[in-house]
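Appendix B: complex inputs.
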Amino acid sequence: MLLIYLISKICLNHNHLKACSNLLHTSNRYSEGGMKTKITVFLVLILFLASLSSSTVAVDKSNCMTCHTNDSAIKALYKPPVIDTHAGEG
Amino acid sequence: MYKGYLVDQTLLGTDPHFAMGCEGCHKGNLEGATREEAHQGVVKRPSDNLQTCATCHQKITSTYEKALHYTSAGQRHGVMKRFSETELKQFDEKIFEQSCRSCHASCGSCHVKAAAVGGISIGLIKGHKFIKKDEGKTCAFCHGGRVYPEYTGEYGGKPDVHYQKGMLCMDCHQKSDMHGDGNTYLSKQDVKDRPVCTNCHNKLGQEARLTTRTAHTQHRDKVTCYGCHASAEYRNCYNCHKESESKPGFILGLNPRDGKTLTTLRVIPTVRDTFAAAGVTMSHFDALPNYWNTPAHNIRKRTDRTRSCDACHTDKAGFLTKEALIENGSKANERLIYPINPIPITE
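Resulting structure:
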């Protein structure tokens, strides 16, 4: 997954997409038609995987989210603030 | 209130702000096994340091650091003439930074989590979503004592016609009013581009109806739009903080900023001993009045004053009088009383 993530991050970046495209051109010049198909399929596969993984790569898997997305956990941990009733607000 | 800490999980994969992880803005200890350990070094409101947002939003933060919502300079400027030089220094040290500026709006106060007013916050606006605007929660939380409920009619009174037509705060107040325009202002009065009625209603005196045309032509530069079109009572601070008068009021008087235009006035919360508890006196308290001109946010096309000339010219309904002035108020208050009675109708 990590590998897919890294490759997808690289290829999703605009400049790197250009690089990927250049790579395709380069391969056309120096190899047979079959190579072109293979690279195209590879890129399509990478982009497909990237689109699938884009929602998961941004998810914070830290401890923060364990509690801060859990309604009952936050409710249990929450301590209401002490309100100073003497403070007058304008 | 605990939901003020509850993050909407669906945002995690869709909002680019989360790509840096929580620690990107909030710091803290990711390895912490307990709540206390995890919160070591945590930054509760990361945007209090504008540089947090400046990483990506450099242009906005560069103007915002001079904006009145951030500096709160308007509050200081509004009261400073009441102090001697020594008192002003005391005010700055003891009150302005700790109190006035404590609820200044950072980026997150409007876009993520409402500011804490008096230590109380309504919490995350929408599950930690970075929202562009949500006036009912963000503007209303700080401006909800008077202006917002007066605009919506929530606390009685007639709602503003603009609200009924579907307009909210940001339909008149521009983004630059919030984010600043790069200039440093002492008060909102100094901002040239702030909203005025004539931005939209720009054909005054050219109306088809004779009475409307005459009224607008005759009163131009003598009475503000609010003077006639504020629908009725609006909220003043003592309407809630003084039990015996817990109902909205309507006050017409001379604009303290120019001393000649008739307009709606609102009582301000500074009284003679406001800062006494902090040991700060106001030697020049009487330099400023206890009423300021106010753009009442309950505008209607037809009001008692647009229907009948007598409301002002004979009855002087709602006009500030000596008897109606607040007790032990500033000596400058008397200068706001419109002196002519009855007001003659000129051709």
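The first strand of chain B starts at residue 252 and ends at 254.
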